[in-house]
Amino acid sequence: MFLHQAAEAVSRNSSARAIAGHTHCGGDLTFSAADEREEHRRTQWREVSLRDERARDEREQWVRVYIEYTALHGPDNLYLDAIKYLAELDQADEPPSESFHGLSVRGSGPSSLLTAQDRAKLIEFIGSR
User: Fold this and answer.
1) CA–CA distance, 108 with 44 (Å, rounded to integer)
2) Using 50, 70 and 90 to split pLDDT, how confident is the model at 100?
3) Sequence ranges of the domains in the chain
4) pTM higher than 0.85, yes or no?
5) Rounded alpha-carbon distances, angstroms, from residue 113 to 77, 109, 122
6) Which residues pair with 114 in a beta bridge?
7) Mean predicted lDDT score pLDDT of the chain
8) Exposed / middle / buried, residue 85 (Cβ in 10 Å: 0-12, 13-18, 19+)
9) Distance between CA atoms of 115 and 56, rounded to whole angstroms?
């Protein structure tokens, strides 16, 4: 499916950035009950939404297919732009700092914010109850 879409985009001389950047990826995702529970857990911990994560993964996968197609069939300007766009997507996926803002638990991090280590201890404590 992605290969066909990439071929169509290249035939219209559309860049990966133009297509993947303005397309709603992940729109047809169906969630199981376990997925809904995970989404709820992530919301509680103010983590990245599972839907958003899957949409981002789908977008990255599409760009990788586009890169593969343009590497074999050209043109070079679309290939080079797609490589640059993928690097930008990867950079945007960098995890935030290890502090968790907005939580009422006093942590040992800077300004008494909860660090990743504090969070792991808290999860372990809650799980042992």
Assistant:
1) 21
2) very low
3) 2-94, 98-129
4) no
5) 46, 5, 13
6) 100
7) 80
8) buried
9) 26
